[in-house]
Write a structure and sequence with these properties.
Blueprint lengths: L8 E6 H15 L9 E6 L7 H16 L4 E6 L10 H7 L4 E5 L22 H19 L3 E7 L5 E4 L13 E3 L3 H9 L3 E2 L4 H9 L5 E4 L2
Length: 220
Amino acid sequence: MRRAANHPAGISVTTRNLGALALCLAAACGGALAQDKPVELKFSHWVPPAHPLHRTAQAWAQSIEQASGGTIRIAIYPSQQLGKAIDHYDMTVKGIADVSYINVGYQAGRMLVANAAQLPFMMDNADNGSRAYDVWYRPYAQKDMPGVKLCIMFVHDPGTFHSKSRISSPEQIKGLKVRPAQAVVADWMKLLGASTVNVSAPEAREALERGVADAITFPW
């Protein structure tokens, strides 16, 4: 059952640190002074080190350190080391992390504009979808995500239905416990007669293995 709704996410920095970041980048353009004290920023995310997003974050951090002449360093904290996936937006606002990977689908009642990307059939692939999503959302970001500054918005490919037993028709979903990717998918599963299990992405596989969920919606 492919073509579940997309799962929008973003990377943001705290307003508190953006001024320092911009200042350091400007200084780096003119050549860093020997006496400059390096700025170290904390980048928190909740996927494991083997995930492609972590490797991308490492490359991004290295490029900034190189471009700044070593005056800006980014320490990356994967696997929910600084806090749960659902807490990353508040962690960024409070300065627990300077840069965070935020899943807007985990923010109930918040980021209502950003969550428009959850609607079904909006995008058919992550590449073009992410480009369009980022450009479209930027004019709304400051009001929709108060307290942080947006770095980038992106989506993954349309999700897939993964289950412990083979499902070949929608009728078989009735009575199952399903971990939905986000609110739109949760409503969809309920309409098909399933109950929902609300766990974050890092907990989804374990929920399936332990029988807490009979099925999950997730990208490959």
